[in-house]
């Protein structure tokens, strides 16, 4: 069901500029569970549930793209039981919410080394991508088995191979070369995020979208991911509006 924003949020949004693309490092599931004396899996479940909530809120606000960091290439270092639980949770999430996602018109996409995931999860990813392909509201991009250094290194290899076949590529001017190189990334047809939010108070990018976040505004909140909701999203957008985006140039007067 579509989310009903509060009157206060609706009135605040009238005077705010919305970021077109928001990226989120969903951190703090473990600490949330610990605070409640529950196992870590409880925190991840609450985190997955909150993702549906945040999607509905951002869709209601009119945000076009939301990219979330669900599982990093470094997360394989966690105990196998936690990794297995996280993968099961991602599958369950789609089984449970795919109808609602379709009803909302949300398009799902995935970035990361999907081919290295368990086969059943790969199937879920394929199905979710295909089923929602023609939806035209919020695009939810899930970074799954994602690492930015890996993405960039792989793009560089593919680009090098193409340069051998088309040596003229090496003559591209810097800006064109940049655009050409970006076309080898998993995010090739997505705009760069305008705002990146990290929950649970950390101030790190943790190998998330290192190329794409070059000019994103950074926002960190102490709020733990399972508790990050409408009020917190609005605060992030207010903070975003207080920034002067210059992209290396001068502020427009
Ligand atoms: C970081 O919290 C969170 C993760 C590594 C997993 C994020 C996954 C979800 C929110 C749920 C599943 C996603 C989908 C797409 C359904 P942490 O465990 O590092 O927390 P801590 O730092 O407090 O221990």
TrEMBL record:
Residues that, per the record, bind Mg(2+): 27, 217
Pfam families named in the record: Prenyltransf
Phosphoprotein in keyword set: no
The entry's keywords: Magnesium, Metal-binding, Transferase
UniProt-annotated binding residues for substrate: 28-31, 40, 44, 72-74, 76, 78, 198, 204-206
Annotated EC: 2.5.1.-
Leading EC class: transferase
Note on how the cofactor is bound: Binds 2 magnesium ions per subunit.
SUPFAM superfamilies: Undecaprenyl diphosphate synthase (SSF64005)
InterPro entries assigned to the protein according to its UniProt record, in alphabetical order: UPP_synth-like, UPP_synth-like_CS, UPP_synth-like_sf
Database matches in Gene3D superfamilies: Decaprenyl diphosphate synthase-like (3.40.1180.10)
Cofactor dependency: Mg(2+)
Family: Belongs to the UPP synthase family.
HAMAP family reported in the protein's UniProt record: ISPT
Subunit (UniProt): Homodimer.
Functional summary from the UniProt entry: Catalyzes the condensation of isopentenyl diphosphate (IPP) with allylic pyrophosphates generating different type of terpenoids.
Protein name: Isoprenyl transferase
Species: Amygdalobacter nucleatus
């Amino acid at each position: 069901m579509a989310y009903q924003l509060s009157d206060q949020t609706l009135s605040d949004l009238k005077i705010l500029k919305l970021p077109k693309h928001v990226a989120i490092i969903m951190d703090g599931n473990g600490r949330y569970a610990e605070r409640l004396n529950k196992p870590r899996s409880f925190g991840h479940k609450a985190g997955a549930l909150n993702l549906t909530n945040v999607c509905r809120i951002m869709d209601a606000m009119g945000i076009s793209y939301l990219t979330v960091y669900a599982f990093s290439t470094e997360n394989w270092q966690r105990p196998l039981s936690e990794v297995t639980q996280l993968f099961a949770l991602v599958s369950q999430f789609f089984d449970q919410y795919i109808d609602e996602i379709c009803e909302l018109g949300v398009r799902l996409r995935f970035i990361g080394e999907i081919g290295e995931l368990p086969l059943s999860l790969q199937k879920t990813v394929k199905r979710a991508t295909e089923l929602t392909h023609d939806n035209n509201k919020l695009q939810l991009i899930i970074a799954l088995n994602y690492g930015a250094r890996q993405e960039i290194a792989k793009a560089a290899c593919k680009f090098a191979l193409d340069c051998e076949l088309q040596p003229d590529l090496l003559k591209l001017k810097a800006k064109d070369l940049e655009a050409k190189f970006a076309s080898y990334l998993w995010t090739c047809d997505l705009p760069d995020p305008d705002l990146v939010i990290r929950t649970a108070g950390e101030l790190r990018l943790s190998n998330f979208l290192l190329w794409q976040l070059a000019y994103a505004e950074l926002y960190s909140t102490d709020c733990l991911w399972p508790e990050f909701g409408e009020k917190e999203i609005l605060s992030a957008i207010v903070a975003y509006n207080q920034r002067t985006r210059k992209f290396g140039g001068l502020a427009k007067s």
